[in-house]
Write a structure and sequence with these properties.
The structure is a homodimer. With about 475 residues, chain A is α/β, with parallel strands linked by helices. Chain A contains twelve helices and 14 strands. In chain A, helix 1 packs antiparallel against helix 7 and helix 7 packs across helix 10. The radius of gyration of chain A is 24 Å and the shape is globular. Chains A, B: It comes from Streptomyces synnematoformans. Chains A, B: Pfam families: Aminotran_5, TusA. Chains A, B: Belongs to the class-V pyridoxal-phosphate-dependent aminotransferase family. NifS/IscS subfamily.
């Protein structure tokens, strides 16, 4: 039963399991204590820090272990912003960061590190900060110089992921770090998706990562703060982990973190090449075997194990279920999942199709046979979902061309229905004619222009529509 | 090799180990995902929450898992204070809370939930809150009615531990919770030391605990927020754990938490009675076999497995080392440890001797033989440390009584030297005469009055002394 969602969480590496077990027996005591059990725990913690720091590319005293990657990001950003309040309150992030970074940015923007006031009657603590979201290209990558251009005299911190979690695109982190250094602004790198594949290059100031993403245990994040970087931990004081990560140290998991990072790094070059070839195969085959599909993300500058594609006229959640029934565990950044009704901010920032989105991220050890099995199963899974939704086959329209503008009322219908209804009428529209799609689904704002791009048709623009929705106008050009 | 520091961290319970191992294989995936591995993880998480909530005495949807007890306390206090900002900024805590609570109180007092400005140039975010520290009696217990008396119209939150971590004294939590409820103020109970022994009684509003304290795994804390309690999570948003505990769920450890809590609860009545008898034995024997010792903490209303005593004329750190060499791992709240130069705030609030402090906390399964071995080893260990420090034997002074006031200059000398020097001269002082001890060690402020109490002599008071220290005056009354 192939599991293809390593980017969410990788199965525990055998070395991690082994190290965790050993450290459960040796590392359960308080490392601050003077007796033998405490000293033993301290030795394990120190050794794990040495190993991990070397693999991160920092000094042991620059690295602390947090309870998760999310906490590393939250606490790293809060600590860096707090330490540089005198420099200013401006924060720069890319528009395709992980939600951990974006939620930190929202909190900073709303109330200076405090979440916005809610219906509970809480009020903001002080004036909000200012956030700049750096755009990306259609491949999901920030442009060279984009960070330099975004920095201001009052910029306290910039954040950039090493590689995107939804589409696998690698960011120009080393270049951005140089740009930030030149401006005297610290750069925090969210390396959650890439650290198992290698260290992050460039003069970054802070780095966050998460062990379970590379096959380490849950419950451990990394936060590196390079010497010379101002840092003032937010929240109540705590003496552990250099005052930067409150709470009793989870030493068994930390030991497993170090051991597993060393193990995956030892395998990274060979396994990366092997998985890259499998992903290349997916990138090539999916558009050949599935109609109306868009493979997204930078085709070259990308993580070796991850590929994302979107399927027109497909409900992403239904497709995930179909693939699950076929035995394949994959994920989605699509708008069409139960957990959220808004489209993926990553796909939105890239301006690509979000509907029917599938992310395949191969864990180490994935076999070619498993990938071939997926490629065999996918076309039927997509076709099944499309059939259920009544998606159009191309050229199926038989009615006479309508005169004037064709209006498609998709109000109250969820993604991907608005695009399906658009496609259904489009063949009846004369070249030069327009279609106005009325929709109140947020995904339509992304997916109708993306459909035009894929079909080579003109997206004219949007206008408010009667009934509370938005009208999206498309002109047939061919 | 007996380990007697369960109150710091208990060795992993065999059931916890077993559950952790099983859940490593089944619970590593993201429980928010729709595929089978995610559904399996979700089932494990839900089941663990059900089990744990029942043992805590709350509903499953009132309980979230945090990365540690410290984080449960920090985030619980911050969230409760934030939600009740309109009610006011006043916080009530007992003076013997764990540092996790006190550091939260300090952060609130300094800067409204933000740590005080440091040398890094950071500035406070907004006006500080107001904190009331409720005193305790000589047994370490808050008085009935003390919380009711401390509450004000602008009190946002009150916090009280279920039992003290240093001396084992149980607090009147149910009574305090009633007092708070009557005033419409939520009470947060830090149940870290007691939850393995039983649920916390009374109408508390929030409860925090830590799994590794009862033999569960490291990396898991509990935060319960009862329905009807206002709560506004501080910090960046995160959708997991009801928005109250950011970060990827550590499901294997959470499963082990539930299983181990159930296991220790099943053994709690019998094991508690057995350990209580062993602690009674220590409480009785130590004063018989070790001269100049004070057993501290409430003798009856206490945790079953924990006893603390302080030894006059003893350097606590040296005593811990001596006991470690003799094969016994015990802890200390003493001022005389390497990690801090200030006396234990708990012993200070109780007004008892802090020097030569030893905390014995027996893990489940401790045998009577191990305790007898400790009782045999202790007198020599204490005598050895005293001999090295040149502590006085009673009645050893041979010189003639000095006329007028005797001045002991202990400036620059660390605890327990000032008390040793006092004792050395005291037998030469005539009844009615006084000794002025000059000291710049903070512990002297606690230990000289405590010495007077133990010796039945009069502590007159303190005054500033030349040379930057303080003069502590003692009158010989017998």
């Amino acid at each position: 039963m192939p599991y293809f969602d390593a980017a969410s969480s990788a199965p525990l590496h055998p070395i991690a399991r082994q190290a965790l077990l050993a450290a459960l027996d040796e590392g359960w005591a308080d490392p601050a204590r003077l007796y033998r059990e405490g000293r033993r725990a301290r030795l394990l913690l120190d050794a794990a820090r040495e190993t991990t720091a070397e693999l991160v590319g920092c000094r042991p005293d620059e690295l602390v272990f947090t309870p998760s990657g999310t906490r590393a990001v939250h606490d790293g950003i809060a600590g860096a912003l707090k330490a540089r309040r005198r420099a200013g309150r401006h924060l720069v992030v890319s528009s395709v960061e992980h939600s951990a970074v974006l939620h930190s940015a929202e909190a900073h923007g709303a109330a200076g590190g405090d979440r916005a006031a809610g219906s509970d009657g809480a009020v903001a603590g002080d004036a909000g900060g200012d956030v700049t979201y750096v755009p990306v290209d259609r491949g999901g990558r920030v442009a060279p110089g984009a960070y330099a251009a975004a920095l201001r005299a009052d910029t306290a911190l910039a954040c950039l992921q090493s590689a995107n979690h939804e589409v696998g695109t690698e960011q120009p982190v080393a270049e951005a770090a140089e740009e930030c250094r030149a401006a005297g602004v610290p750069l925090l790198v969210d390396a959650a998706q890439s650290l198992g594949w290698g260290p992050v290059a460039g003069p970054w100031s802070l780095l966050a990562a998460s062990a379970h993403k590379w096959g380490g245990p849950p419950g451990v994040g990394l936060l590196a703060v390079r010497k010379g970087t101002r840092f003032a931990p937010a929240g109540p004081a705590d003496e552990r982990e250099a005052g930067r990560a409150p709470g009793f140290e989870n030493i068994p998991a930390i030991v497993a973190t170090a051991a597993s990072l060393r193990a995956v790094r030892a395998e990274a070059a060979a396994e990366g090449a092997r998985l890259r070839a499998l992903v290349d195969r997916i990138r090539a085959r999916v558009p050949e075997t599935v109609p109306d599909v868009e493979v997204v993300g930078d085709p070259e500058r990308r993580l070796p194990h991850l590929v994302t594609f979107s399927c027109l006229y497909v409900d992403g959640e239904a497709l995930l279920h179909a693939l699950d029934r076929a035995g394949f565990s994959v994920s989605s950044g699509s708008s069409c999942t139960s957990s959220t009704l808004t489209p993926s901010h990553v796909l939105g920032a890239m301006g690509v199709l979000s509907e029917g989105n599938v992310r395949v991220s191969l864990p180490p050890g994935t076999s070619a046979d498993e990938v071939e099995g997926f490629l065999r199963a996918l076309p039927d899974a997509v076709a099944g979902v499309r059939a259920e939704l009544g998606a159009p086959a191309r050229g199926a329209a038989e009615e006479a061309p309508a005169a004037g503008e064709t209006v498609v009322d998709a109000l109250g219908r969820r993604c991907p229905v608005p695009v399906i209804e658009l496609a259904k009428v489009f063949d009846r529209v004369p070249v030069g004619g327009t279609v106005l799609v009325l929709s109140d689904d947020e995904a339509a704002r992304l997916d109708i222009p993306a459909w035009c791009e894929m079909r080579g048709q003109e997206y004219v623009g949007e206008e408010p529509a009667a009934g509370g929705g938005t009208g999206y106008r498309v002109r047939r050009t061919s």
